[in-house]
Amino acid sequence: MSKSPATPKSFEAAIGELEEIVRAMEAGQLSLEQALDHYQRGVGLLRHCQDTLARAEQRVSQLEGDTLVDAPPGKTS
């Protein structure tokens, strides 16, 4: 990729783009160069997602006073 790829607008957008990359790579129709570009973008998106999740975990930890509490069974929100 010649220019720096844009940072995803959200965690969900990054996951969606990762899913598209996986589908394209699994289809096996990419040239070697395209596959490498897709792989590189995927690694960047993965790091973005990991960082986003780590920040979310820190926020939850702060809100819970550094003591994470399990959600009651059946709660999905």
TrEMBL record:
GO cellular component labels: cytosol; exodeoxyribonuclease VII complex
EC number per UniProt: 3.1.11.6
Top-level division of the source organism's lineage: Bacteria
Enzyme class: hydrolase
GO MF annotation list: exodeoxyribonuclease VII activity
Gene3D superfamilies, per database record: Exonuclease VII, small subunit
Record's keyword terms, sorted: Cytoplasm, Exonuclease, Hydrolase, Nuclease
GO biological process: DNA catabolic process
Coiled-coil boundaries: none
Reaction(s) catalysed by this chain's protein: Exonucleolytic cleavage in either 5'- to 3'- or 3'- to 5'-direction to yield nucleoside 5'-phosphates
Localization, UniProt: Cytoplasm
N-terminal signal peptide: none
Record flagged with keyword Nuclease: yes
InterPro entries reported for this sequence: Exonuc_VII_S, Exonuc_VII_ssu_sf
Its biological purpose: Bidirectionally degrades single-stranded DNA into large acid-insoluble oligonucleotides, which are then degraded further into small acid-soluble oligonucleotides.
UniProt family annotation: Belongs to the XseB family.
Subunit architecture: Heterooligomer composed of large and small subunits.
PANTHER family: EXODEOXYRIBONUCLEASE 7 SMALL SUBUNIT
UniProt xrefs under NCBIfam families: PRK00977.1-4 (NF002140), xseB (TIGR01280)
Protein name stated in the entry: Exodeoxyribonuclease 7 small subunit
Organism: Pseudazoarcus pumilus
